[in-house]
Amino acid sequence: MADLAKIVEQLSALSVLEAAELVKQLEEKWGVSAAAPVAVAAAAGGAAAAEPVEEKTEFDVVIKDAGAKKIEVIKVIRQLTNLGLVEAKTMAETAGSKVLNAVTKDAAADAKKKLEEVGAVVEVA
């Protein structure tokens, strides 16, 4: 019989990428999918909807479109992030770029307001 404590110790030492690879190999070897129990758990979780939902405390500010005033949007991005001109320009030109990551609700709202004032289309997620 395998020493379970030793197996737990070895699994704890794995990196995230190694753990993901282990999951793939086990799925192939045993012919199962690790996603199935998650779906069942999610369906069961719907019945427990009466539990209080934890309020989100970190938000991402995502630029969807720089709009017509791209130069002004780049300036605001540089003010918000301290990025260089090239990085800010790339961010403004790439739809779906995260201008700010994991910031407070107030900081996200402020950044959204500033970007929208210069014509950008912004989403807070």
Protein architecture, described:
With 125 residues, the chain is of the alpha+beta class. It has 2 domains: 4-47, no CATH class; 59-124, Ribosomal Protein L30, Chain: A. It has 6 helices and 3 strands. Helix 4 crosses helix 5. The longest helix is centred in the N-terminal third of the chain and has 15 residues, at 16-30. It is elongated and about 65 Å long. The model has no long low-confidence stretch (mean pLDDT 80).
Quick take:
With 125 residues, the chain is of the alpha+beta class.
CATH superfamily of the largest domain: Ribosomal protein L7/L12, C-terminal domain/Adaptor protein ClpS
**What's the helix count?**
6
The rounded distance between the terminal residues' Cα atoms is: 48 Å
What Rg do the Cα atoms give? Answer: 22 Å
Q: Do you know the CATH topology of the largest domain? A: Ribosomal Protein L30, Chain: A
CATH architecture of the largest domain: 2-Layer Sandwich
- CATH top-level class of the largest domain: Alpha Beta
Percent helix range: 55-70%
Beta-strand content bin? 5-15%
Mean pLDDT comes to 80
Order of helices and strands: HHHEHHEHE
Structural shape: elongated
Can you tell me the residue ranges where pLDDT is under 50 for at least 5 consecutive residues? Answer: none
Largest sheet: 3 strands, antiparallel
